[in-house]
Amino acid sequence: MTDQLTTDPSKPAQRMRAGSMTLTLAPWIIAAVAMMVMPLVFTNNSALTIMNQMSITIIFALAYNMLLGQGGMLSFGHAVYAGVGGFACMHIMNMSDFFESIPLVILPVFGGLFGMGLALIVGSFSTRSAGTVFAMISLGVGELIAACSVIIVAFFGGEEGISGDRTYAQPFFGVEFLQQIEVYYLTAAWVIISAALMYLWSRTPVGRMANAVRDNPERAEFLGYSARWVRYYSFVASGFFAGVAGGLFAINYEILTEENLNTASSGVILLVTFLGGVGFFFGPIIGAIAFTLLQTVLSLSTELWAFYAGTLFLATVMFFPGGLAGLIMMHVPAFKLGKASQLIVPYLKTLLPGAIGLLGAAALVEMTFHFRHAATGDDEMTIFWTTFNSHDVLPWIIAGAITLIGLGIARATAPSLKDAWNEANTAGGAS
Amino acid sequence: MSTPALELSGLKKSFGKAEIIRGIDLSIGKAERHAIIGPNGAGKSTLFNLITARFPATAGTVKLHGENLAGLEPYQINRKGLSRSFQITNIFPAMTVFENVRCALLWAQGYRYSFWDLVNRKRDLTEGAEAILDQINLLERRNLPAGTLSYAEQRALEIGITIAGGADVIMLDEPTAGMSHSETDYITDLIMKVTEGKTLVMVEHDMGVVFGLADRISVLVYGEIIATGKPEDVRGDPKVQEAYLGAALEAEH
Description:
The complex is a heterodimer. Chain A is mainly alpha-helical. Chain A has helices at residues 13-41, 45-71, 79-94, 96-99, 107-126, 131-151, 153-156, 180-202, 205-215, 217-221, 227-253, 263-276, 283-301, 305-319, 323-329, 332-336, 344-373, 394-424, and strands spanning 162-163, 255-256, 380-383, 386-389.
């Protein structure tokens, strides 16, 4: 899904085109098949819920990256468009007398249209410039509409939000969407459609010019394009897909509150997108999967999951600004040189002790938390399948030692990993 | 004489109290290669920015093919057939070389704000971009991020972007600044080749380039044109000798 055009003048044009077509389609087919098979592997309802949440986050993060990664617009209020789309869908569900004939499967389109409608209005003045002005306007509008949710109770339902029933419509070819699994497949279909449309969008003239305007708005203007209009188009399209995500949220959870459009939610989607990597189309997809797993699975085992998510985000911003997708793509040259396997052993030598050291650090964090917050008399705690008394000294010494030794080994072996990395990325060489 | 390609009359620009451009009248004919020279701080780049509406003029008019450009945005001026490069290299560094040129073709090929055409499927874009890349000798570098090219290559790419839209008035702001001798010769040949039959307006310091390329030269000193004419006339003009050219020519040799 990179921009590389695989052209080789020696090959006939026809073959080249067919070859690049299969290459482009392959990831989509794999993704579609994987999504179809997933419920057979993870059968319980909570897994389905997690996967639905993942899917919704994927659409939302991809929509967000149309602004951030492709258009160079940093928004602090994008949850508003998803939220408004979701609320609109909820109202449609609740007015089943009128809308009975709209099947549930196309309801997200209406979420999209409402998100887009709001984006049409807000974008008309916010996309005048990128950078700080855009960011500040997005923040202001975000706060404004979040505040409206307690004022305009008829639409937003005040503090308790509004709820609905997704079985409002006539069954769609006999499917009533009572079962979680039916909703899963509905959501999955929407992820594939939305992601494909957003990918295709990035290949159109206005999608290409979004990159040009991001890189250098002034130069883009001397190519005949108004930077403002290019931004506006991206913004409106992004509002549409955010609204689709909101509609799917409404279908899945059947309740929406102010939380769905407040600044905190807008912050989360920024975090998700950046974690995945803004430089590649598939970055936000990875970010959405990783973040949802962190949020759902990690939150089962620790109350401090947000602390770890925040740490991960900071580490990404500081050390891997390309995000998880950037980390993956970093290895492409080594693969092309056929030298990627040379990295396995050095990686194990550095990353394994590093990971153990970090787990030790996490244990220290958990023990501190338990020491401070556990009820009096409840001194026992369990981490990593080990139960001990957090008021004893020995566990602290052990966790501290693991941290220091693990990180120490990682640090000591880092130079040889660096050498191996340089070697693996150099053509030719001794080995 | 038919309508000039570019006509400036009474053009003035002040920043606060400082008058940088002090009334310029200049007419540049179709398919003419015109160079604007002058000492540092004479207002050459400001003049460029006035013509392309990067700054609004304090007074006076700019006409492109007889049409007044007052009040137009840069992108609207570009659509009327005027394209420019910048003194500081101004490309899209994160995009590939090919993508840089292809984006420069989009508007002129009529794609505008299309969100239904897929650019990879469009033969006219691919072939058009390849033709330009061939002209500027960057065909083999097509898949590299433009920011990784050498300085001279980036300047060549910028010229490619500038001409790609098919504009008939091309403005180049110091295209050979900071280049070695061989690079300068290379870029001069390139400019000669790609501006064939087009109107070229160029700001340039290198007198070798100026006298090699220009049909006519204007000398700009302190915001005023003190002489305009054929290279040999300008070279012999005592006013020019005194104000600028003598010193510049000596520095060349």
